Amino acid sequence: MSRAQRGTPGTRTGSRKSSEAWRNWAGNVTARPVREVTPASVEELTAAVHSAAQDGLKVKAVGSGHSFTATAATDGMLIRPQLLTGIRSIDRENGTVTVEAGTPLKRLNMALAREGLSLTNMGDIMEQTVSGATSTGTHGTGRDSASIAAQIKGLELVTASGELLTCSEKENPEVFAAARIGLGALGIITAITFAVEPIFLLSAREEPMSLDRVLSDFEELHAENEHFEFYWFPHTGSCNTKRNNRSAGPEAPVSKLSGFVEDELLSNGLFQVVNSIGRAVPATIPSIAKVSSRALSSRTYTDIPYKVFTSPRRVRFVEMEYAVPRAALVDTLRELKSMVDRSRLRISFPVEVRTAPADDIALSTASDRDTAYVAVHMYKGTPYHRYFTAAEQILTAHEGRPHWGKMHTRDAEYFTRAYPRFGEFTALRDRLDPDRVFGNAYLRRVLGD
Questions:
Q1: Distance from C-alpha of 179 to C-alpha of 189, rounded to nearest angstrom
Q2: Residue 397's CB: how many other CB atoms inside 10 A?
Q3: DSSP structural state of residue 234
Q4: CA-CA distance, 363 to 177, in Å (whole number)?
Q5: What is the pLDDT of residue 7?
Q6: Is the alpha carbon torsion for 350, 356, 358, 359 positive or negative?
């Protein structure tokens, strides 16, 4: 039994009336819950949910706040899971690890590395909690390996009735099929069991490349690399590309000096400065974009997975990301570039492109189709509506599915057409949470009521 299950001596649930607003990482979502709870055990969490339901309060759990949507916002009871952290168990024979839901991905990755284990794939940041990341469909890039949620082998879920469900392919399989990406609509996840494997090395190759070449060679670049992604700089024809592939070694990590220059000084420090200039004087952005696209040089390095897949992201922004059929990516990017070139928009953030294979999760953006992701960003405090609206028109025309944790304007009517198994998910929600204890305005919009 874990410490989170037992509770900590001298620690109680931490229920209190809330007088402070909660804000997400980007600062674009604010909520004012009337009650906050920090449970130290599954039992305390279950009791808190039961108490809130009796008092007629909606309940939402919040992780690190890295979603740009209001998926975790509530004016009822806000559950903070920071005491529900740590690894419960490691099963080396079956290749799994069970971890408390409030554990940050960073802590999980570091703990697994110490045990000689790793997730197969991951996103490019690791500040989120495991439950928050999986519930909104956080993903990296991969030819064969899919999102973090697709690596789930089991989970625990507290339902609106206070029942603790253990879910897997064999136990409560219909809940397992949906709750891996559940948007917090089916209940509150208390623990997740992930598939893991012996730790391995990845060799990363980063280099500039023209957008024309990336698009003309995209299928080849995708087929030849386990993990391929690129960043296109609007107002230019330039990209930065990254190819990650498994390596027999030897380990050759980025040097401390190179890491500081590339990842901190250029990618964060200087990028913060140039974005601040661009926000103040938008006319300078096209020139800044040309400089930014040439700032990062080619490099190769080999390291353990989380040190290759993830990067620090200290410059704050807002983001919209859509998943389109992979076969539609090249046309989508060409239309996006043409729109930017024709417009008077000034965009200082690169467009990020990644891929994922089809999976079997009901609300996964890669559900039942090979997928490419197109993410558009704007620096925090910069007007973004015109850019995001124009981009969204292009992305939805290509049957795009928005990332659940990133900005979009789609609703349940759209998702009924976009997801073949959307009805399965909403029917399960009706069964598990008929009174919408876990509901909020965002879920009313995207799931219906």
A1: 9
A2: 13
A3: T
A4: 9
A5: 37
A6: negative
Helix (H) or strand (E) holding 219: helix 218-224
Q: Return the residue matching tokens 């024709």.
A: 342
In angstroms, rounded to a whole number, what is the distance separating the alpha carbons of residues 239 and 209?
Answer: 5
Residue 267 has a pLDDT of: 64
Q: Which of 260, 147, 134 is nearest to 192 (CA)?
A: 134
**229 - beta bridge partners?**
242
Distance separating alpha carbons of residues 25 and 62, to the nearest angstrom: 12
> Pairing relation of β-strands 299-303 and 351-356?
unpaired
pLDDT band for 23, please (50, 70, 90 cuts): very high
CB 21 within 8 A of CB 32: yes
- What are 161-216's pLDDT values in tens digits? 999 999 999 999 999 999 999 999 999 999 999 999 999 999 999 999 999 999 99
Tokens 């690399």 belong to 225
List Cα–Cα distances, 208 to 269, 295, 299, 372, 375, in angstroms. Answer: 20, 10, 10, 20, 19
CB 120 within 8 A of CB 306: no
Res 170: pLDDT: 97
- CB–CB of 104/129 below 8 Å? yes
Evaluate the omega torsion of the peptide bond into residue 250 and state whether it is cis, within 30 degrees of 0. yes
User: Would you state the structure tokens that stand for residue 165, as one six-digit string?
Assistant: 């469900």
Measure the CA–CA gap between 180 and 101, rounded to whole angstroms: 12
